Amino acid sequence: MAGNTRQKGSKAEDIAAEYLASRGFRIIERNFTVRGGEIDIIAIDNGVYVFVEVKSSMVPGFDPIEQVTRRKIRFLKRAAELYLLKHGLIDRVECRFDVVTVRFGSGGRTEVRHYRDAFNY
Fold this sequence. Notes:
This protein is 29% helix and 40% strand. By secondary structure, it is of the alpha+beta class. Strands 1-2-3-4-5 form a five-stranded mixed beta sheet, with helices on both faces. The chain has two helices and five strands. It has a single domain, classed as 3-Layer(aba) Sandwich (Trna Endonuclease, Chain: A, domain 1).
C-alpha cells in the first residue's frame, strides 16, 4: 500500500470501522481528540461503550498489537474517562477497551484481527 503513515493509519481506521459495523457495532465517534492524542473509534456493542485503538503494519511477521504499550493504555484510559465525563456517562455505562489490528499485505490483501476486552478499565 502506497502513501504516507497518516494515510495508512486513516485507511486502517476506515477498515476497522467497517469491520466493527459489519459485526453489529454502532460507531458513535471517530478520532475523539484530547490533549496528548486521540481515541480512534468509539462504538456501542450491545449497550457497552467500546473504546477502540487501531494499529496497523506492513511489516511481514510483525503483529501490530505489539504497538499497544503501557503508556498508550494509560492514555486511552484517561481519554475514555474524559469522554465519559464530557457526555455525562461516567459511572452510568459499562465500557471496555478493544484493539483492532490491520496488516497490509502484498497485492492489496489485508488481515484484520479484533482483540475484544484487550485491557481493563
